[in-house]
Amino acid sequence: METISVIIPAYRAAPTIGRAVQSALQQTCRPDEILVIDDGSPDDLAPALLPFGDQVRLIRQDNAGVAAARNRGISAARGDLVAFLDADDFWEPQKIRRQMEILEAHPDVALVAARYFTKLPGGIKQVITAPGRWVDRPIRAAGVDDVGLLTEQRHEGPAGSKPPTGAPSSTD
């Protein structure tokens, strides 16, 4: 089975990082490691991560932005697969398990992404939809609710030639 690294970029995230990490730890398909990338944050993340002990690895870097923090996490990750979680978000407990089921059932799939929802404390979930965005138009459906899939099919023909008829594209 493939190993999973969760990468959490964090900037001014001390108040919310605990909930994010807890949601990663409560997955029904538990990740093999959780990396929190402190992107030069002025708040101190270490005390917020103390309750998680060695279940979380904190990596510090000078402030370079969320993309650089994610890239730093990818470089440090030991897992075969990575899952990104923002420091102010949290996952439903079955998120990783559902995505792993898709990857196992469809070995040609290179990326699994999910729709998202908003939920205020004590409130109800509100699923976010944005007609026309790629998460609302999966290239290939796998029969799993609220999950968009992207597959990669390379076209190895001569430069300027078109892929064969029926090949998936971003407009399918």
What does this 3D model show about the protein?
The two termini are 31 Å apart. This protein has four helices and eight strands, in the order E-H-E-H-E-H-E-H-E-E-E-E. It has two domains: 1-105, Spore Coat Polysaccharide Biosynthesis Protein SpsA, Chain A, CATH 3.90.550.10; 107-172, no CATH class. The chain is globular and about 40 Å long. Strand 6 (116-118) and strand 7 form a beta hairpin. It has 172 residues and is of the alpha/beta class. The chain is 21% helix and 23% strand.
Helix content: 10-25%
Strand content bin = 15-25%
Distance between the termini: 31 Å
Overall shape: globular
CATH T-level topology of the largest domain:
Spore Coat Polysaccharide Biosynthesis Protein SpsA, Chain A
Q: Mean pLDDT across all residues, rounded?
A: 80
Q: Could you give a short description of this structure?
A:
The protein is an alpha/beta fold and 172 residues long. The protein has helices at residues 17-25, 45-49, 66-76, 95-105, and strands at residues 4-10, 33-39, 57-61, 81-84, 109-114, 116-118, 126-128, 147-151. The protein folds into two domains: 1-105, Spore Coat Polysaccharide Biosynthesis Protein SpsA, Chain A (Alpha-Beta Complex), CATH 3.90.550; 107-172, no CATH class.
